[in-house]
Design brief:
This protein has 7 helices and 11 strands. The protein is an alpha+beta fold. The chain has one domain. The relative contact order is 0.24.
């Protein structure tokens, strides 16, 4: 069992996507999506560039990986069981716009649905190979929870992620996150970038460009 931690600079409700009862990671963070296994934990920590200020010592979300599907399998899974994860870019419901089942595999090659990403993100998205699913997650959004001092060593650098270096802290992190005074599998706060993105006129292009700048 591993614990992956990374700085979640753009918390917008797309990656992770905490809606409809299952938290999913279907775009961004390709290296984590390729390597994380069922029963591993992933935690997105706040950024010093958050609209909330420097929250780099706070947890924005944590998920135990309970399912791991190829992106093609995830497409079929969403069509069958989670259709609201299919992005509907012109829907007035923000959650529908942020759907992370971005690629349609019904044809000979994956076709991109209109979403928060553009064709510029295709290669990086597909390089992740898998979508990670969680039925045991904690999503705090704009109400992040501060790490206890004993877990501060799991904080990652500004970019990239940590996994092997977190090995001494896995059990302590799980005990702590499962003891927080919030119910699991609920959206506790709103995505930190939601209001900013609702007002952004050229959202797709800007999100696409921002994600291309992020490094694993």
């Amino acid at each position: 069992m591993k614990l992956y931690t990374y700085s979640l600079r753009y918390d917008d409700g797309a990656a992770p996507n905490p809606y409809w009862g299952i938290c999913t990671l279907g775009i961004r963070k390709p290296a984590i999506r390729r390597t994380a296994e069922v029963d591993d934990w992933i935690a997105g920590l706040g950024s010093s560039h958050s609209p909330l200020g420097d929250i780099s010592d706070h947890v924005v979300y944590a998920m135990k990986v309970t399912g791991r599907l190829t992106l093609k399998e995830y497409d079929q899974f969403c069509k069958t069981f989670l259709p609201k994860k299919l992005p509907d870019w012109h829907n007035r419901d923000y959650r529908r716009r942020m759907g992370d089942c971005v690629y349609d595999f019904s044809g000979p090659s994956p076709k991109m649905r209109m979403s928060i990403h553009t064709e510029d993100n295709r290669e990086r998205d597909l390089s992740g190979e898998y979508a990670l699913l969680s039925k045991q997650f904690y999503y705090f959004g704009n109400k992040p929870v501060r790490l206890p001092d004993e877990l501060r060593p799991i904080m990652p650098a500004a970019q990239g992620y940590k996994s092997d270096a977190n090995d001494p802290y896995v059990d302590r992190f799980i005990r702590w996150i499962e003891s927080v005074d919030f119910p699991p599998n609920k959206v506790i706060g709103e995505p930190q970038r939601k209001q900013e993105y609702l007002q952004e006129k050229d959202l797709r292009a800007k999100c696409s460009a921002r994600d291309l700048e992020e490094n694993d």
